[in-house]
Amino acid sequence: MFSNHAGINITETKLQIVEISYKDDSFYLENVEQAVHLESISPRMPEEKFIGILQESFNRATKRKAVSSSRVSFALPNNFFKIFEIPYDDSLVKRDLNDHFRWELSVLFPECSNSDFYIQHIEIDKSRIRPEKKAIVLAIEKSLVKTINVFCVQNNLELKYVDNVHLASNAFLNLDKSVASDELALSLYIDQNFSSISAIDRSSPFYFKILDSNSQNLFDELTRSVKTLGDFNLSLKDFSRILLYGQDLTDEFENKLKNFFGLPLKKTNPFEHLKVEQSVLENHFYKYKFNSFAAAAGIAIRII
Fewer Cβ within 10 Å of end Cβ, the chain: N or C? Predict the structure, then answer.
């Protein structure tokens, strides 16, 4: 049975909250709020400072309406993860597979202790596009998850899940009934410094790339990603649409993306499949900034 669940998206500069409840046989949007951090956060911050910034933002975000749920999950930025693609042997049992990924992590990032990471992976051969036995691996330091859990305990919250911001946003692919059974789509998550692109077969990602934050032109990075898709015998005409998530997206930027890709672009509204409490209907974030809450809402619906 679904219990009230709050999703929190942490960006470098903001904390965003979406709370969802289940009643009268329907899912309701109970709360949508955000607060701008007094200081930008990073994964390298000392725990005490990180929690202090998070707490101050959380206090301001919940000032108008407190979070009623005791269960909470977090979406975290791309730069909080080590993300890479490697071959794998599907004859390995889960524990051995995780050990293999940890060994690869130590090779790719020799400065890291691989035992200090939690591992998540996506098998790209689940798609119809890439049959090779490869996996997209996301690794996050255990100390970061511990820090977030300390924050939760201090606020009498139970931590359920921690996920990548882009993957959390992609949760809406499973709810969108308009998605054709054979659809290929691209999804973009646009963030201040660490944006990303993913290619998806129905709801199965088969390509994931963090866009270089040092690039002077995001569209140069996108051009390189499109070229990589050619390695899978795909061109842009094979994709039906672009799913767009992210922070503070302007109409001008959206038009540039449409012109670049030449594909229909859907700016995702994460609330369109939810009933809405009366108190939320006039909420500024609900009415005008809905797209930027895709990750918070996506992690909140993860247990639906």
Answer: N
